[in-house]
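This section describes the prediction task in plain terms. A model, or a person checking by hand, is given the sequence of a single protein chain and must write out its three-dimensional structure as a string of tokens. No templates, partner chains or ligands are provided. The sample shown here is typical of the held-out split.
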Amino acid sequence: MVNRKELEPESSPRAAYGARVRTWRENRGWNQEGLAHAAGCSSQHISAVETARKPPTLRFSRKLDYAFGTANTEHSFEREFYELRRGSLLEGFPEYLRHEGRAAEIRVFEIGIIPGLLQTPEYAQVLANSAVRRGSITSEQAEERLAFLAERQASLVREHPPMLFVTMDESCIRRSVGGPAVMEAQLARLVEFAGMPNTQLQVAPFAMGERRTLNLPVNLLTLADRSVIAYAESQAQGHLDRESVSVLPLLTAYHQLQVEAMSQADTVAMINELRKGTP
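The expected answer:
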């Protein structure tokens, strides 16, 4: 085959992913144009992923699963995508993300920063740049993190979007990230989010004190079969839980938090006051 580049799958996880794409493609008897047609992308993109010149994305991985018929199987490319990201994600989070894009309801509680699903690109960029300066991630990892976040947000914009409930500690909106311009755009994004038909936004005010029922960030997914998955994390550790004996108390605590938190109307009013510079 002319200009066939030999792959070195052992050189990196990205290279291993690309080599696997080529293997599956050739086993089907397809050239790159054939796979591109089946997956709904360009042959140039297939080539770039196979040779590890471009990193795979979540959307691309799902297209491969559609083309190869590997969705929700042990051979899933989406599963391998999350495995590839595992090194930069906390334990349990890759599996959580596999369900997030298909959940019927998503409940989020966050402390200190705007939840990722609601972050503007500029806000997310500031956080990623800060992590690079601290040496906790590389510039390449920062770029991948931002692309990954954009894909997570895009996966929620679908024909039948999930109900998305977000409760934030007041610190999320009062902590300045990136300066006035970045914060203005971010706060405006929160107001826009609150106006969507499938969302609910609430602030848990400082005045709640000990009545705040959650002390760590928590994500709760209600799946199509009405089962619930919980994901909670600290600074250095994450934990995914499917057991109802431990998940249902978290769900109860979330509902109790919502009762004590500000209404959406009051939340939007507080955010708009901050946008005007009123403490």
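For orientation: The chain has a mean pLDDT of 87.
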